[in-house]
């Protein structure tokens, strides 16, 4: 008979050491991320079997206005074995603990892939007028593990959440990633990754190099320069920028946990900052997290130059995946989001669908009031 799983609060050190012993986990499930999300109360929890720590989770608690009840949120987590057919054994002790902490609902984002599409399939979908969404295109691969997770969550009463808006704006369900290992798990070469990109990307990387764009790793003191360019990008592309203090906190917290966890990249042309990015890596998974680019000197292709430097760095660090983060599901050529998808598709990677975010209402009356509150805000 299998020893049952138990759950308890764990220290940040126990949490960090467990993740360090795994191939990878989302950076949103590292104990350092609690410092970045300081407006949420946080807790590290761990699952044990026979005294051995076998899973961990970062829980963020957001209090409802005027009542001591919380949404308990595990972004892109928890870090458990999602491949089995007994999720109930993992989730029952978690829900019991969170209920005792005053949670009216639990929200989590299982880090489980459900479908994949090749860059060519996405490109063909955009060109096909009858295709409006990625889901309209038959996938290259369907994950049995992903289907099993979704079926079990439905059976256990969890509810899938929409990807638009949300209490915390949510994490993207669709991402674009470049595999840095082949089907057998062997590392790809720089030449192989470059040959997988489309002609425009290869030409722009060459153009940046020929124009004299210099890409280098920055330091904490360079965050102000990054942020100035980022706010310029936000005005141009019409999104709300985060404050400089957010990036300083993120850089300090992630860097303190592991000096290789976060990198600031700067691309300059004749002394002018033309592109800047923030990259994060946990084990074998590397993410392009934030980016900024100047409107002037776009012709020197600093954005392509800095991306190529980040991809090469991820390869050298032994990463298996270079993750360009979220894309929307739309493949409608007239949709304004398609430009970003086309930029990412040019890298020759693949579109990846995750299981998405799921809620389990614990107190249904409060959860219903919470949903009405969100609807009014939205």
TrEMBL record:
Family note: Belongs to the FemABX family.
Organism: Nocardioides furvisabuli
UniProt KW RNA-binding keyword: no
Domain of life, per lineage: Bacteria
Pfam families documented for this protein: FemAB (PF02388)
Protein name, UniProt field: Peptidoglycan bridge formation peptidyltransferase VanK-Sc
RNA-binding in keyword set: no
Keywords: Acyltransferase, Cell shape, Cell wall biogenesis/degradation, Peptidoglycan synthesis, Transferase
Residue ranges of coiled coil: none
